[in-house]
Amino acid sequence: MKKILTLIIDGLGISDVEEGNALKKANMPNYKELLAKYPHVELGASGTAVGLREDQPGNEEVGYKTIGAGRVLKQRSSFMNEFVDVDSLATNPALKDAVEFAKKHRSTIHIIGLMSDGGISSNIKDTIKIIEYLKTQKVKVVIDFIADGKDVEAKSAQQYIEMLQATEVPIVSICGRYYAMDMEGKWDRIKVYYDLIRNGVGLKIKEMPLALKNCYIRNITDEFLPPMIVEQDKNLKKNDVVIWTNFEEDSAKEFLTALSNPEEIDEFETVFVENLKLLTMYPVDEKVNSTVLINEEDDASINLSKYLGKLEITQARVALPEDYENVTYFFNGDSRDKIKKCNLYQVEIPCVDTKRQKELHAVAFTKQVIKCMEKDTEFIVAGLGLVDRIGHTGEMEETVKMLEFLDECIGKIVESAALNFYTIVITSTHGNVEEMYDKEGKTVTTHTVNRVPFIMTDSKVQLETGTLADIAPTILSYMDISIPESMRASKVLIK
After folding, report:
1. pLDDT at 297 over 60
2. Highest-confidence range of 54-63, 242-251, 455-464, by mean pLDDT?
3. Measured between alpha carbons, how far is 131 from 109 in angstroms, rounded to an integer?
4. What are phi and psi of 70, to 5 degrees?
5. Which of 57, 295, 299, 322 has the highest Cβ tally under 10 A?
6. What torsion, rounded to 10 degrees, do the Cα atoms 359, 365, 367, 370 define?
């Protein structure tokens, strides 16, 4: 049986534009040699190609789930788009119950979520539809504004504030996602946002545009905005309702656990909110006490990992701690089930005080990938988000340096693959570093809608273009394994 290493490097998109293209600017002889020597094509990784709305950039969660599923999955943003239809809102039993609850107790409904149109964690257009519906129900509604600055431009909060102001529902607080949506166990950040929403602790401001301007002068962009109180005494009270409008769960776990299940939090002091009603779009975590509004219909659990596990094919997953959920939970279809003969490697990071810490991360990742090949593991998935994370900073020079160092790592991986008789598949879940400036020369820190590479280190095959959904059936076909029914709507990229 052929052995496969699938190397997924997040943030590598394809663009012919030279200006602002870190991938073209970087000196990457090993990557360029792969392109010159082996078959390669472009894959769709955004919009309808991966089950998102048209022209919506892809991301790691969507990308890994799609690659693992071997088919186009209807993503949460699409379910959300259907949910906010007026008829769906009016007939949703959980939402109707929350409205009646607020009326009965004469309490406030807090709309809390990431307020942007990035579409990765939420979409402000959906949030506005929920707000407009609640206005027709004659209940008291306020908005707790979480600023983005990561999935959208770093200083774009004002345009989203104006969109919400048009609803005439008051924005009572503002805070950056760095605090509100931490997913790294940094409880000091969560405490900052918890104190704002629960206890009304924050900077008191009168004019939102002026407050934003003052933050920008201090180089504090939207993502890192401090907790700000726009209207006083609007923090959570007894009998209040919270509607958390984000549809991505990882960045919701910590804050919503503290809010709805304070007994689970030992990291800081919490204050129980009596008779709080919390509504979330989707299930978040078993520790979060909430009512779920949307029922997903697409089953992502039938996937490549489990299929190969049933066939008792040896597998490995390799990633840095920041990317570990991508190659495990998301790749496995939002599942933490143990897969037979699949070893998981969360790469240990050396604790060395050096300016080249990111390079050490890449080296540790590379060594673990090579170890897995030396063990003759039949199918390896290695996911690396280092380049993408640097791309998000907008620092062209640092991104180019990381790409060049990564190229050295790719060279070592290719060398080991040849010694251990592996075919390497190189791809990405979305674009980023190929478009770091726009046409006006303005820095772009977001994901792109550009297609991504698909390289296969076997000069005997011919490839055709497709989407991320076609990768799994292509791998199975190459390994001479029957393609399951769930993947047969996708195509094999090998001609």
Report:
1. no
2. 455-464
3. 10
4. 70, 25
5. 57
6. -140
